[in-house]
Every structure is written in C-alpha cells, then in structure tokens.
Fold this protein.
Amino acid sequence: MRNRRRTGAVLLSVALALALAACGRADEGSGAASGPASQAAEIDTSSASGEISVWAMGTEGDNLGVLADAFMADHPDVTVEVTAVPWDAAHDRIVNAIAGGEGPDVTMIGTTWMGEFAQLEGIDPTPSNFDPSQFFEGAWDTTVVDGTSYGVPWYVETRLLYYRTDLAEEGGVTEPPATWDDLKAMAKGVQDAGAEYGINLQPGGTGSWQTFMPFFWQAGGEIMDADATFTLDGEPCVEALTFYDSFFEEGLTAPAAGDVPLEGQFANGDVGSFISGPWMIGIVTDAGAAPETWTVAHQPTEEAGTSFVGGSNLGVLADSDNKQAAWAFVEYLSDPEVQITWYETVKDLPSVQSAWDNEALAGDELLSAFGDQLSDAKAPPAIATWEEVAAEIDAVIEQVTVGDMTPEDGCPAMQEAADGIGTGA
Amino acid sequence: MAWSFALPFLLLFTVFMAGPIMVALVTSFTDLRVTDIRNPLSVDFVGLENYLAVLGDARFQKAAANTAVFVLVGVPLTMALGLAAAVGLNQGIVRFRTFFRVGFYLPVVTSIVAIAVVWRLLLGTEAGLINGILAGFGIDGPGWLTDERYALWSIIAMAAWRNLGFLMVIFLAGLQTIPGDLYEAAEVDGANLWQRFKGITLPLMRPTLLFGAVITGIGYVQFFEEVFVMTEGGPLNATLSLALYAYDQFSFGNYGYTAAIAFILFLAIAMLTVVQFRLFRTEA
C-alpha cells in the first residue's frame, strides 16, 4: 500500500516535471511601429457564401437581427446567426472562445479589450478593404495594436458638457464655456442661480478616468509616447488633476457619489451641468428636462479641446473558418447607409464619418454637436493591461478628490502604478 | 477490489477537486496572464514572486485589514445576536414563536444580492430610508456607504443581520440537547439567570458554538457579494475585501497573481479555523 502510494507520487512528479520543462516564454521582439497602421491583404468578399455566427452585446445584440436579415437578403448564399451576449459575461466568453478555438466568426468588441485580444492572436488583422480615413480617427485608433489594425469601429460615442442654459443665463453666463476658466465660471454661475451643485464630476470610482482624461488631453498630456512608455506624470497631469480637484475643493460638485439619479437632479435644477455621452439626451428628456432649458457644448479648450471616444468595434476571430463571409458582413455594417439604419434602430452613433451628412444626424442640433466633438476625441492606447491601468487612475482620482492626496503626489502615483503594471507586451 | 469501489470517488475527486487545486497551485508560481491562455505552457516560473508582490501590495494590506476587522467584529457580533435570539426563543418567548423563527431565518434564505441591493437603497445618503427617518428627528445622517468612516461598519451590521438566523437555528438545536433537570438543580441551589447561563448553557454549548464560529468565520473571511454589490470596495478601499481584491485581479487577467491571493486566503482560513478549535476546545 505504502509502496503504491509512493509510485503514484513519483509518477505525478515526473508528469509535473515534464510539463514544467515545456514551459518558458519564447523571446519575442516587440517594437512600437510608427507610421500608419498596417493592414492585411484585401479579401474578396463579393463571392461570400456559407454560414457565419455573430456575437453582440446589450441592445446591439437584441437588435442586430434586423441588419442580419437585410444582409441575407442582399447575400442569399450567406446565413447569419446572431447571438446576444450579456455585457457582464461578454469579455470572459470571448476570451474562452479564443482560447478554445470554438467561437463566433464575428464579434462586437469593447474598445478597451482590443489590445488583449490582439495579443492573444485571437482576432484577425483588418484587410485593406477598409479605408481608415472613412472612420473617425480616434475611433480607428482603438483598433490599432502595436502598429496593426484588428477590426473596425462599429459605433462611437463621445463625452460632451450638458448644462442648464436657463440657470447659466440667470448666473450671467450666456455663451457655452470655451475654456477651463469659462467652465468654472459657468459652474459658479448656475450654482449662484440656485443649483445645489454647479457641476457633477465623479469623485473616483469605476470609469471616472473617462471624465478625467479629457482634461488631461486638453492640458496637452498624452497617456503614452511613441515608444509605448507611460507618460502620465508631468505638468499636464498636475494641471488637469488640480483643475478637476478644484471643483471639489470649492464645493462646486458633490463630494461623494450620490444615490439619487443624476438626470432627475439635472431636470429639477439641483445639478447645473455634467459631462456624459449621447445616451443622456434621451434619459435627461425622459426625466422631464424641458428642451429649451438645457443644451450640450463642446469640451472646453486649453491647449486642445479633446474629449474621450468610446463605443464598440467589430472583429473577425482568427479561428473563423469563413472569413470571407465574416468580413463581408463587417463591410456591410460599415456602409454609411447601413450605419444610418442602425442609428435609427438603436440610436448608436455612426463610426463612419460620411454617415453624419445624413439629415437624421446633421439636422439634429444636439447630435451634430457630438459629431463635431468626434473629430477631436481620443481613446486610451490599445494595450492588454489598460483596464488595470484605468483602475489605478480611478483610484488616484478618488485619493485626490475624496482623500487627502495632492495632485502633485497623485500624478507620480499614477505613473508608478502604470509602470508597475506595464503594457502586457 | 477495494480500489475498484473507491474508484468512482477517486476519479471525481482527482478530476474536479485535486486536479484544479494542483493546477491553481502551480499557476501561483508562474506569471500566467490572460494573454497566455492560448499557450499556457509557455509561461515563466517566477518562484515566490507573486506571493511577495501580493504581500507587499498596499491594496492587499488594506483588504487584509478590512477582512480582519470584518471577521473579528462580525463573527462575535453575529454569534452573540444568534445566541440571544436562540435563548430568547427557547425560553422567554412563547407566543408567536414560529413567527419569530421565520422572521429571523428569512434573510438567510433570501439571495444575498437581493439583500445587498435593498440595503444599498436603505443606506443611501440622500434618498435612503434610514437617513430619512433620522431627518425626521432633525439629524443629518451620514453617508453610510460613501463615508470612509462608516462604510465597513454598515456592511458588518448588514452581514450580522443576515446571518444571525442561521446561527439561531443551530443554537436552538444545541440548547434543546441540554437536559432541563440541570437548570432545575441549579435553581434549587439558588443560581440566578445569569449564573445558569454562564455555568450551564455556555459550557454545554461549546461544540455548537465551535461549529457556529467555524462556519461563520469561513464565510466571513470570504465576504464578497455584499461589497461587490453595495460599494465595489470603496470609498477609498474602505470596504475592499480579500475576495473582492482577488476578483479584481482575476478580471484584469493576472491569473498567476490571483492564484497566489487565493492560496494566501486559503491559508488564512485554515489558520483561523485552527485558532477557533483551540479557543472552543472542551476541557478534558
């Protein structure tokens, strides 16, 4: 008995040793490429046939069938099967699909996941069928990992300033804020006119970097330099963090995340302004804010007037066995007219610039403001570790706005944390 | 022959329990990240680096301190409340006994996520019921979940409220095994209520108390859903638990690092259980 147990143990350790001997990373040369992103050779999508499966999240997943049906009417030889995936589970499911080689042919991809999936060699480089200049530059950049583009932007969103024009006028502000000083003056103005808080800025917490980073870009900062080294610390960061924090110091924004929905507070005038994406147009309107009492404005300009660009991309999985039909479907979804149909179906804003000439968007004052901002909007670098770096930035923002860290200490802390995490390459 | 009877169990145990645990243990000594999962064998062994990095991480230390407070305050509090409820129901309260038992036990059988969502609403700063009641008395209630000073205590209070029902049922069963004539004899000897509780109930309840402490302790060391739903570990990491910290690292794709946290957590639970066994050991 004792002997047998020992044999088992020996066998196990031999197996383990063999497995270990097989381990070890191959040395990979990794250099940041400069110049335009490279793309794969053109794929002839005109003769696409067969079956493809497509994954999409949220509202997009629920409604993509509309476009799939239209696509199949155009391409009778192709069958498209759409699967709706919940947002919460999407990231892990795609990772599992890539790891197991059993997944969809086309999938919707959150813009901040691109670096990770590209590094996994799980998604296909974009063929040269797609012209980058068709798309908004900031959105296209989210597909570029280490100099190569993987997939195309599907829809976009960017962040604008929503503010109560009636309260601002009462407080003596008649023009949309053009600079940081104007923004501060507007926040003070609406607060003087009776708002409890002049503006709503996130005091840290998940995603607050999306509100903060535009200020960082506006001060002339860049998250990374051309050598893929983080450049978070520096004068632009301190300026932006000091400016962001000043709203908290001066009592112009709520010191802690509230438990009352923002849209209601905006509608009844408790909160005079906030920075958010196009989805808030509908939400604010539903909350009862009269259209003549508020509007949206371009981000304020210091060295730049840059905002954050988000949205989702479309990628074709590297293991797909019908890439011809897969890219044909992606091509179809990037068609300006299809993008307008999609806007009319789920209100997703087109990633293709020429679609914005359509009356449905160009004729809407609020939406065309988003269109203007999109030509000056940036996304974080497509690196595999971005979510983790972003969490560190969120943490520092909280330390500075809620805690007692100074912006002068916060920026080096961001830099140190980001350097510690690295780019995952 | 004997082995063939044990084989089904052994197979299941190896494939579903021992195997994954071994894999996790090996993983904790590698730099495995999500970007390696297509070639998991191509990772490097880094020795104890993950463990050292975890122990040196300020956020881990904060999470460990929060978890320690949660366990050291939460377990005794929950046990005391559970015992009080059990003793009360066993002796004092005769009317509506079933009603109270159901009432105390109801939170235990309710989904923790549903409870956390409701408590988040109750504890809200502006629109919360508790601050609403306080406002009725002219008191400006604090941010129960958004103020660094109160957040962890709010979560502890909720956990105690939720789990006392389970301990109450266990303790009730323990109380009913104590022979009634012991109390009668003590009463004849002139022992008062407190003396009877201290001299009879507590010593004879030791095994039951130990069980309660171990089960509650193991659960509390791994507390997760409460903070995941209610605070995401904030404000300023005041409610970050070890399990939530591990979850965050896993979602960032740091699998080797997460495996190291998991084994540290496992060691902590093992050590806590040993301490509890020593504390409640019946004198021979």
Remarks:
- Chain B has one domain: 57-279.
- Chain B touches chain A through 33 residues (CB under 8 Å).
- The longest helix of chain B spans residues 58-92.
